[in-house]
């Protein structure tokens, strides 16, 4: 994962998040959006609709890939259990 630069403007973080999304680098997208959220919270401002959508997309894609991996593991586990059950007398 790339190092997230400090002290960028909101617009720069949004731009980097969009680039990360296009490159399907969702973990980096989350990092850029986290920096933006921390900066806006410190400044006492709310996120724009676009910023909220980018944050949502970033987490949705990171979590989605984790869920897919988990489903694969569960499927393999179920196949193993059914094979063990068949082998029992």
From TrEMBL:
Residues 16-84 form the 14-3-3 domain. This is 14-3-3 domain-containing protein. Belongs to the 14-3-3 family. PANTHER family: 14-3-3 PROTEIN. It holds the Pfam family 14-3-3. The lineage of its organism: Eukaryota, Viridiplantae, Streptophyta, Embryophyta, Tracheophyta. Gene3D superfamilies: 14-3-3 domain.
